[in-house]
């Protein structure tokens, strides 16, 4: 690799590679009746010689922001500047690594790696030389003549990296590049990238990586950009001063991981010196249901009593759960007031402790009680059932409530979560054939028992 392409260790200069100014991105809703904001008022600079991680919950628009930087889509509002000039069309300074391998099955590994170079008009020998060198950087020089079908998943993703490396881009964009890999392969690839960057031999000037893994963000980045969700906005930026190569067992590493977990588990917590004001919970948030099953919440409760006060990061490691999988379970537990996250440490409420030790029948009774007490959408449904002469409510009633505040796909997903919750604990009945809710026998019996008292 030519020395002018080995930019991984260079100092950050005053001229950003990319400027994102007041960018918003809106898409048409599923029914075409409105426009939904995925990103709103994004301001961000990408400097030469840095690694930036974009971290946020599902719905924060991380991948959309990456595609805007690449020029694959245009902003609805605001502007993006490349080297001080407005970005129009595809950004020629970037290469992209996606989470899917996207290799051409009829081409060899070497030919797949060289695809991007062929459009540059280079000679055949130069193309081959550069492609072989890129494959050597990812440990695949011996597989140049193989076809994708002959490679493991980890090897195919390494080809994806080589295909990006060979372009020697000023900016490498990576969209969850390790998410489709097994744990060991993903960890090895992360380590390879960290070592190449630390050694000043990384074949790109800067990196922006979209990730849902906090440990990955801390391992690779110089700063972490935290995004809120629905729509995506920048909550704040957390610098990462840890020396490279990084040791994920070091106390300072774990401390930064815990700090980021505390931000991710508490969407209202101010991030450092973020200039954005923290938004207060809205009625939209009040009706929302996190996409987690009650079974997952109960399973988590049964694991925690032995480890009260465990950090969320340690819990994620023990359960081998990614952030996007664990956070909805924690959100559901907090909504039901069965657990609480305080400073990225998890504890149980008195009801949560009781539920963890209860029989299955008692667990269902406690879940019904907590849902009626603490879940606004459930209370609205209960009120409608009580007001109905037949104690029945059409499913459209719930969907209409949700559709006032959420997009159609979001409303439908929350509807399904509601159905799964009420069925899991026998709170109400729901007939999918009739699309109708009815008061359940368990609820009626409990209400009669309360009346007799």
In summary, what is this structure?
By secondary structure, the chain is α/β, with parallel strands linked by helices. Helices cover 43% and strands 19% of the residues.
Largest sheet: 6 strands, mixed
Into which percentage range does the β-strand content fall?
Answer: 15-25%
Q: How many DSSP H or I helices?
A: 17
By CATH's scheme, which homologous superfamily of the largest domain applies?
Answer: P-loop containing nucleotide triphosphate hydrolases
CATH topology of the largest domain: Rossmann fold
Assign an overall shape.
Answer: globular
Computed Rg: 25 Å
Taking all residues together, what is the mean pLDDT?
84
Based on secondary structure, the structural category is alpha/beta
| CATH A-level architecture of the largest domain | 3-Layer(aba) Sandwich
SS elements, strand count: 16
Which residue ranges are poorly predicted, with pLDDT under 50 across at least 5 consecutive positions? 1-13, 273-284, 442-453
The domain tally reads 3
Helix content: 40-55%
In spatial order, strands of the major sheet run 6-7-8-3-9-10
Distance between the termini: 81 Å
Secondary-structure blueprint:
Layout: E1 18-28, E2 35-46, E3 51-56, H1 62-70, E4 77-82, E5 85-86, E6 94-97, H2 109-118, H3 124-137, H4 153-165, E7 171-175, H5 183-198, E8 206-211, H6 214-220, E9 223-227, E10 234-239, H7 251-265, H8 283-287, H9 294-303, E11 310-311, H10 312-319, H11 323-335, E12 339-342, E13 345-348, H12 350-357, H13 360-374, H14 376-387, E14 392-394, H15 395-403, H16 408-425, E15 428-431, E16 436-439, H17 441-452
Parallel strand pairs: 3-8, 3-9, 6-7, 7-8
Antiparallel strand pairs: 1-2, 1-4, 4-5, 9-10, 11-13, 12-13, 14-16, 15-16
Helix pairs in contact: 2-3, 2-4, 3-4, 6-7, 9-11, 9-12, 12-13, 13-14, 15-16
